[in-house]
Specification:
Length: about 375
């Protein structure tokens, strides 16, 4: 899978851009603030319908414009498809596939698969549990696009149930909300547990590959549920366990005005040498673990025959020479790798291919 064409209209710093991309490694070099990351952000947006940098779409529209457009041509095997996304202020985005408008934006999910490495990835290791839950859910959707609807339904029910608790509305309806929350939550939780089971050995292997001399035996991945589950519980058993836990917690929930159990309260605990990575891992260990999470995602999606495009957003500047070299060796086999760097020499020589300079929103090929 690779992107052959990227066109932007009023997206971030680009009033207009028309860029042809080859497979293999492509590097964009330019000083900070020139628009390098915007290019990778646009490609990532087509894959995930969201930005890795901001939580809302408004900042994606160039100042003074009313909407932004991203067009990409994606090739997978012998098939090509054109995706067009119009990001509109204050309205639902319009999405077209091969010039045909899709009923829902999320119907585009699955067309393009990417794995993005960025300096923000360190938050997956050092940040709050929400960062790791977001990592899991984004990977779930990349692997199984229909789960985007499950996550949206769970979050919708969670908001409505929590609002009911907070305003102390008609609490007699809580049983109905509990059933909906448990139904959607069980499907999400079952999918997360299966994902972690598939992902864990790949994380250990990727950590060893990145860290080299550092031991992989001490890397731990543990999914901790806020709901006590019987061993080997399926979706129905998970739903029943959620209902029981919500019933037992109801007095406390009513008192505090929050929903205290469900996938939104779970944690993915990462450890190195038997100690939680958050708070104990060194900077080097934290970076190795963050890279391992992304490399494991790449391996998992590749095993599912999605062959993701790799996006490396100014990552090499954050790494020492050893980790730069190891990462370059591991990603070079991807069908397409798009890299940004403020300094061209930060990119290891193993990653050849064409280079573009980016300056004040202008992108030009280096001869």
């Amino acid at each position: 899978m690779h992107v052959t064409h990227l066109q932007l209209v009023d997206f971030r710093s680009y009033s207009a851009l028309d860029l042809t991309l080859p497979p293999g490694v492509v590097t964009f070099v330019g000083a900070n603030g020139q628009g390098k990351t915007n290019l990778l952000e646009a490609v990532g947006y087509v894959a995930a319908l969201g930005s890795h940098r901001v939580s809302s779409d408004a900042p994606l529209i160039r100042e003074g414009a009313e909407h932004a457009v991203i067009r990409t041509r994606v090739v997978r095997g012998d098939r090509a498809a054109l995706a067009e996304i119009e990001i509109v202020t204050g309205r639902a985005n319009r999405v077209r596939l091969n010039r045909r408008q899709l009923p829902r934006a999320r119907d585009l999910l699955g067309l393009l698969s990417v794995v993005l490495f960025a300096p923000e990835d360190l938050a997956m290791v050092k940040g709050d549990p929400a960062e790791r839950r977001r990592f899991l859910d984004e990977l779930l959707v990349a692997r199984t696009p229909r789960l985007a609807g499950v996550i949206a339904d769970y979050e919708r029910v969670l908001r409505q149930r929590t609002t009911l608790l907070r305003v102390r509305g008609d609490l007699r309806t809580l049983d109905s909300w509990d059933e909906s929350l448990a139904r959607h939550g069980a499907e999400l939780l079952a999918a997360r547990l299966a994902l972690v089971e598939d992902l864990s050995p790949r994380i250990g292997a990727a950590y060893a590959a990145v860290a080299g001399a550092e031991s992989s035996a001490g890397v731990g991945v543990d999914y901790r549920c806020s709901v006590p589950l019987p061993e080997g519980a399926g979706r129905d058993a998970i739903a029943a366990a959620m209902l029981a836990e919500l019933a037992s917690l109801r007095p406390r929930e009513v008192e505090r005005g929050v929903t205290l159990a469900g996938p939104h309260r779970d944690e993915l605990v990462l450890s190195v040498s038997g100690r939680p990575a958050r708070g104990y891992a060194s900077h080097g260990e934290s970076w190795s673990l963050a890279l391992a999470l992304r490399l494991a995602s790449f391996e998992l999606l590749g095993a599912d025959d999605r062959g993701p495009v790799l996006l490396l957003d100014d990552v090499f500047a954050e790494l020492d020479a050893h980790r730069r070299r190891r990462l370059a060796e591991l990603v070079a086999r991807a069908e397409q790798v798009l890299i940004t760097a403020a300094v061209g020499d930060d990119v290891p020589p193993e990653l050849g291919g064409p280079r573009f300079t980016v300056r004040t929103g202008e992108v030009s090929l280096v001869d």
